[in-house]
Amino acid sequence: MKKLITLFVNNNKYEIAVAPNKTLTQVLREDLNLLGTKEGCGLGDCGACTVILDGRPVNSCLVLAVQADGSGITTIEGVAEGQKLHPVQQAFVDHGAVQCGFCTPGMVLSAKSLLEKNPHPTEFEVREALSGNLCRCTGYQKIVEAVEAAYGTKKE
Q1: Is residue 154 scored above 80 in pLDDT?
Q2: Which of 43, 88, 109, 112 registers the highest number of CB atoms within 10 A of its CB?
């Protein structure tokens, strides 16, 4: 039996009937057509499905949609302001930290969450914050540099 839930996604309110076993990733992609949240492993290991749930990054594949009832969610679609990229997004572009792009939404959201809590992280803190996000295309150096540069924390 489906349950009616309310989600506040990217500052928009959605009331949706969901099956009790449907994940937040599935609802975002299939019901709300927010395709920036990627489904990678489905086990919480890769971070491709990372969203910000009530102020903290989570693997949306591990969250049942019914558990998110009443929650505020930010997906990659809610990060830019109109046509203006968020500083983290712009830094990823400027520093060549985007390759195939599959992991990028999760990386950006993890980095955004870190920098909102700690605007001057050390390289270790950046790497630790991104440790739940796997990228199969890079050696992570450009990604770390982009995060450090996003708010001027990179040491030259």
Answers
A1: no
A2: 109
